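Quarterly update from the structural biology core.
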Amino acid sequence: AGPRMTVVLDNARPALESEAAAVAWDEAFERAVSRAASIAERALSQGTSVEVVSRGEASPLVLGGGPPDPI
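Predicted structure, tokenized:
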């Protein structure tokens, strides 16, 4: 079976009172997505199986050593 990692990505967008706050949240979320992808890619390359979960959704489990495309 081997090691397994679950990357949790919180995609719940809070109620924001201004356009500036919405833009800031969107930018922060995009950085979080990028970081999650980097973490998953590194873990896969080291033989760890990875799945990504968010509120209400989960990616398929990608086996360690495999390409990150399905995530």
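The chain has a mean pLDDT of 91.
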